[in-house]
Structure formats: C-alpha cells, structure tokens
Amino acid sequence: MFRQGIISLLKFDPGLSVIGEAANGSELLKTLNSRQADVVLLDIQMPVMTGTQTLEVLRQRFPDPRVIMVSMEFNPSIVAMYFEKGAHGFIPKGCDVEVLVEAIYKVKENGNCYDLSTELAARLNKHSLENFENTYVLSSREVEVLRLACQGNSNKQIGHMLRIAERTVEFHKTNIYLKTGLKSLSDLIAYGIKNGLGSCN
Amino acid sequence: MFRQGIISLLKFDPGLSVIGEAANGSELLKTLNSRQADVVLLDIQMPVMTGTQTLEVLRQRFPDPRVIMVSMEFNPSIVAMYFEKGAHGFIPKGCDVEVLVEAIYKVKENGNCYDLSTELAARLNKHSLENFENTYVLSSREVEVLRLACQGNSNKQIGHMLRIAERTVEFHKTNIYLKTGLKSLSDLIAYGIKNGLGSCN
DNA sequence: ATTCAACCTGCGGTTTACCACAGGTTGAGT
DNA sequence: ACTCAACCTGTGGTAAACCGCAGGTTGAAT
Predict the structure, then answer these.
(1) Is A187's CB within 8 Å of B97's CB?
(2) What range does the domain containing A180 cover?
C-alpha cells in the first residue's frame, strides 16, 4: 500500500520513471536481474529479509544502482551504520515527497544525501567524525548481535550462532547500551525493530 | 509520506473525498473538532500516542465517525482487541488500495470489515466466538501491561504504574505468552511494537 | 616495533524475568 | 445462591540478563 502510494506520487515528476517494484528483499534482487536501476528506494522495515541484510547483498551483487534507505526512524547510530554498509541516502518517512524527489535527484548525480535538517549534519561538522563514530555508531558486530536479539534469541543462542562466548554477547550488548543510551532490554528490542532489524516485520 | 501516498490514491475514486489528515493522534482529535468525517483511517504505528490510546479517546469523544485501523501486521489476538475497543475495520498495509477502498465503502454503510481472505474469518465461524476470545484475544489489562512493557518498563515499574503487585504483572505476562504463543521477552516486545503498542514509533 | 581499536573471554555477583503451587476478591450472569 | 471469568497476590525457586574486574588476540596504521 505504501509502495503503491509512493509510486503514484513519483509519477507526478516527469524526470523520474519507476521501472519496478518489489515486496521484499529477495524480490528486489530478482527484479534487478532483469532491469537496470539508477536509484533503489529501500524500505528498512521489510518482510522476509531485514533492511540491513538486503542492503549488504544488494551492494555485493549489484554495485551500480545507488541506494536510498527509507525509514520511520532517524537515529544517528543507525543512519551512519547504513552509510557504512554502502547506502547513499537516508530519508525518514515523515518527510514530504518533495524531499524524497530531491534526494533521488541528488543521489542519482553521485551525491550522498540524508535529511539535512537534522542534528546529524551539525554533529558531523562539529566533532571529529571519528570520535562521533566511536561514540555513537554501532559496529557491524554490534548490529549483528542486536539483530539476533530482535529476532527473539537469548544471549546464549546468539553466542552459539556467532560462535562466541555468551559473555562476549553481553559485552557487545553493553556497548550497544552505551552507544545508544538505552537502558532496558525492552528499549533495545523496540529500538532494533523500529530501525529495521527484525525477522519478518 | 505514507499519508500523502494514500491520499493521492484515494483521489482516484470519485465517490470518496479526503476531508483532512493528521500526523498523530492528538492532531487527529483537533481536526475532528472542526470537520465531520464519515470514516477515519487510523494507522496503528503512530508517533505521540499509540494506536490503542488514540482509538480509545476517539471513540469516547467522537462516537460518530467509523474507524478503520491500518496496520503492518495481522494477528488475531490484536485484531479482535481493536474491534472490542470500537474499531469497525482492520486492513493490513500489504493489501492493494482497491481492498482499502472497498473497506471504506463497506464500513461507511454501517458494516464491519476486516480482510476476509484471512484465517480469522474462518476461525470466527468454526469455533465459538467466546472460546476464541478466551484463548487468543488479549484482555484490556493484558494490552496495558504489554504496552508499558514495550515502552521499556520493568515488571516492577509496571506494577507501580498500574498499582498492582509485581507478581500480578508476571501473571498477566504469562497469560500474554499463552495467548500469543510467544516465548521470549524479545519476541513479546517485537510483537507489541509491530502491533502499534510503543511509545513514539 | 608499537600503538590502538575492536574483538574476545573467564569469574564472580546482583538483578530481573519467569514459573509452579496455592489461594483470595469482585462483578456479571443463571 | 451459585458459577465463572477476570483479576489479584504471596512463597520460593530457576534461569536469564547484566555488570565490574581483569586479561588475551589480532589486524591495521604510524
């Protein structure tokens, strides 16, 4: 329904053409086999595959199309993480469609883009980028732990899956708590789900 | 963005007119003060107020307009809960817009409506409604506990807020686990968030 | 070669979540 | 008066999450 809506809105812009749509990550990959895209709009909350996983596979198998993540949330820790994984843009769903159209053009011209009206831009200029990353951005290992936690696994199970000790999972979780400022497991899960780490949402 | 999309799609149907839109629950209530609506489309995942809370207040203060809940998920336990709280329709976002339009007409004519292609309809006919409810549908107390849990509160905190013993919170949680078939706290939180119980998603 | 960050781990110990057992209240319906 | 469902609560115990302390590895950059 969301897809139908966005597509019908994008059709109002004569400079853009929608060459395909997909209900989930694996459909997307199939579509890209037959058609070439300049820009891919990737919803973070998807069924079948998580946004993170889809992005990873997408960048590996189809390096050409540029990617804009579309999300309900806008957390610096998460936004930066998606850029590190190869995204070129990040747009919260709260934006007007005009902003989205602008972003599509910008990203198509080899630019990067995230909603500039936000605090992140300011922070990236003020403090050194590195310091910011070490303080707020989740490492890929941490994202992995968070993802598995969001999918209902216990620390022990996560440790088993990643072939690390339960203690190490706790260690990563502690760091996630520090970086995100969250305090309870409930908050952690809620945070993860809203940011697109979840089995089949 | 989602709203803009839906509205542009609904405009294609000459029998419908969109008389207003709102970004969250309290905006909705303000809008209804000045304009009368036949049907309200209420997204379950909203900022500021949860879907449940908005529905409750809406039904109290504006009993006339009929309400269709729009959600990513479709869990019998939750769907039935929303009907009990006064909703008249329930549409998953995965549906085509045609289904939504159909639903709007149906609900406007004083009918109730949920996606008939689903298992729920079958179940409601087969087993007695009462048995179904006792087995699957969350009571209002249980929903309240789940909501507070999704907002990051511990059992102790929840007990404090609802003025009941911590033990009683555990009791309700156990029942939620039984009714939903979930097993871990992570699953529980994920379930709640996806179904519109969450602080400001 | 050294430094540094990210990763990994073990040993306690505390807190929180959960569960089995056992029971009390209250209000609506027969 | 009785039933029944939903609600509430205590005791005591297990498992899971979390935390401080203390330390080891590895790979990339200076």
Answers:
(1) no
(2) 138-194
Token look-up 């891919």 returns: A40
Q: Do A184 and B152 touch (CB under 8 A)?
A: yes
A17 and A75 inside one domain: yes
DSSP one-letter code for B40: E
Euclidean distance between CA atoms B40 and B54, whole angstroms: 12
Residue B147: per-residue pLDDT:
92
pTM of the model: 0.84
Instruction: Please name every residue paired with B113 in a beta bridge, in sequence order, or none if there are none.
Output: B89
Whichever domain contains A153, its CATH number is: 1.10.10.10
How far is Cα A142 from Cα A137, in angstroms, rounded to an integer? Answer: 10
Q: In what order do the strands lie in the sheet with A113-114?
A: A39-43, A66-71, A89-92, A113-114
pLDDT along chain B (201 residues), means of 10: 91 91 89 91 83 85 90 80 82 88 85 51 48 72 92 94 94 92 93 81 48
